[in-house]
Amino acid sequence: MGGIGVRAHELACAISVHASVTIVSAVGGDLSTRYRNLAYSDADVPQLIKENDFVFFFDLASPQSLLEAAACNKFIVVENAIPIEHLEYNSGLDKVSRRERYSAYLEEFKIQMMLADHFICRSQVERLGIISSLLWSGRVVPNDVQMSRTLSHLITDIPIGCLKSSVDMIDDDITNYSSNLYLWNGGLWDYMNYQFLIEDFSLSSKNVDTNNVLEFMYKPPMDQSLTAHSIFNEGIAGPHISLWPDEVNHSSRANKIRKAKAFVTFAKKGIENETCIRLRLRDTFAHGIPVIIDNNGATGELVAELGIGLSVESNRNSLTEALRIFDDIDRYTEFRRNIREESSKRYLDINIIHLMDKLKSRNEQSIRGKDELERIIKLSEKYNNVDIERPFIT
Hints:
Mean pLDDT: 85
Number of strands: 13
Helix content: 40-55%
Strand content: 5-15%
Shape: globular
Structural class: alpha/beta
């Protein structure tokens, strides 16, 4: 489990300190079970929605479950961003099928914008996107600005981070500094610039340390990156490049990460890169591992601003120089020190308190009027035959 799955689970853990929480999913994985008020279930989803006061949804939420929550007058909280990366999903499909899939993603996003009572934003750039979407969809009116000029009654910022209990850093810097293991810790294959790394990491390492190894931690899904499949299946990635053979559970993944020297993650230049902060930075704040990243967008800008790694051009010379800098013990310990300082500011346990305070005061204001409920019923009829069920939180 990575990315949004870990994010949803850790938010649920943080909320469970204040209330009972059910993650609506059949799969619990091997993530922390130390939170007594946290459970997993996918039995009788409509009944689960009826029994709870708040319902949280994430990227690509189930339209049926959203509409059920709204029809039951539940307070709906959404963490999402404008569906830009979705333009690059399903690269293995033909053009017509990809267009149809993307239209469905847009519909799901529109329903979230219409029905949610509150929004969680992971970064400033994503906050701006959500505000634009709220304005475009007619959700923000003059009265909202009178209530809060920053729309704080509609939006809460919870930056990418981790639970305090998830922090698992090796205390001394030398252990990680002495490692030759670099990790690519995932992301949408179609969106990442994996070909650059496969082609250039080995050549760059020859000029720095011939023992360096770059491991890709996830296989590409079958509907993404046909080129990636052929590269790894035909064994032409090179001696310094490897792919984890199987999916690993979360604890095994964490143990591997702790032994790494750095994450190396390059994405393609484009509008998605410019408008998002990658969720995989959570691993940096949890495990203390610095990052070598492309400078094509908001994530690279954040890495440079916080001093938690290097943001560089996507070319061989820049990658070689970055590997040299990571062999400088003074610079490496500086990156690690900055990560420790920043990680403590991003504990979800602390940042969730602002949201919980708002929810306690806003719960009774989520009641929908007769006209709104009639509109929801009409929308429900449209999605009656759509078979989409994805994890969410109640």
